[in-house]
């Protein structure tokens, strides 16, 4: 669920402007999973544009507090959400921790890095939601440390049905600055894509794991 429509449209426009999101239905990208995709999203680019990263920071800070109440800690999911998570924590005057994909193999073997006390209220910041599996693994790591997860806030979601199911099963409320639906509407409006290309992008979103495969 998006925080609000205005933020969703503005965020989508900014991501397109800096090529953090690229739309190419005719020459699709290949994801690490092997899926063929007409869209590629790299929200790390936000950090290289001060005015845009400040916008993302401020929208996160304002809407996180409005939606979840002020938490005790902000947690970022490594690696994509560490930078923006720190910005949000700084804006709210809160401690920050981050979650590795898996525990370190040496030293203290931490998966959650930083100071976290049992029972603290945590909002998790993520950069991108696809199926939601890696994001929810971070949630489970935090819960295993005794954290009370208030919810998750992400920059963008592809809006896959499987992600909605995964978050519902994990009992985690997810809010995003923007989403696939608002992105495509804005992309057509601003002539980044045609209506025919929008149809192709919508088809992919309905069945991303099989889209573009030869019969």
TrEMBL record:
<comment type="subunit">
    <text>Homodimer.</text>
</comment>
<dbReference type="Pfam" id="PF00156">
    <property type="entry name" value="Pribosyltran"/>
</dbReference>
<feature type="binding site">
    <location>
        <position position="106"/>
    </location>
    <ligand>
        <name>5-phospho-alpha-D-ribose 1-diphosphate</name>
    </ligand>
</feature>
<feature type="binding site">
    <location>
        <position position="130"/>
    </location>
    <ligand>
        <name>orotate</name>
    </ligand>
</feature>
<keyword id="KW-0665">Pyrimidine biosynthesis</keyword>
<dbReference type="InterPro" id="IPR000836">
    <property type="entry name" value="PRTase_dom"/>
</dbReference>
<dbReference type="InterPro" id="IPR004467">
    <property type="entry name" value="Or_phspho_trans_dom"/>
</dbReference>
<keyword id="KW-0460">Magnesium</keyword>
<feature type="binding site">
    <location>
        <position position="104"/>
    </location>
    <ligand>
        <name>5-phospho-alpha-D-ribose 1-diphosphate</name>
    </ligand>
</feature>
<comment type="pathway">
    <text>Pyrimidine metabolism; UMP biosynthesis via de novo pathway; UMP from orotate: step 1/2.</text>
</comment>
<dbReference type="InterPro" id="IPR029057">
    <property type="entry name" value="PRTase-like"/>
</dbReference>
<comment type="similarity">
    <text>Belongs to the purine/pyrimidine phosphoribosyltransferase family. PyrE subfamily.</text>
</comment>
<feature type="binding site" description="in other chain">
    <location>
        <begin position="126"/>
        <end position="134"/>
    </location>
    <ligand>
        <name>5-phospho-alpha-D-ribose 1-diphosphate</name>
    </ligand>
</feature>
<keyword id="KW-0328">Glycosyltransferase</keyword>
<dbReference type="InterPro" id="IPR023031">
    <property type="entry name" value="OPRT"/>
</dbReference>
<protein>
    <recommendedName>
        <fullName>Orotate phosphoribosyltransferase</fullName>
        <ecNumber>2.4.2.10</ecNumber>
    </recommendedName>
</protein>
<dbReference type="GO" id="GO:0004588">
    <property type="term" value="F:orotate phosphoribosyltransferase activity"/>
</dbReference>
<feature type="binding site">
    <location>
        <position position="100"/>
    </location>
    <ligand>
        <name>5-phospho-alpha-D-ribose 1-diphosphate</name>
    </ligand>
</feature>
<feature type="domain" description="Phosphoribosyltransferase">
    <location>
        <begin position="59"/>
        <end position="164"/>
    </location>
</feature>
<keyword id="KW-0808">Transferase</keyword>
<comment type="function">
    <text>Catalyzes the transfer of a ribosyl phosphate group from 5-phosphoribose 1-diphosphate to orotate, leading to the formation of orotidine monophosphate (OMP).</text>
</comment>
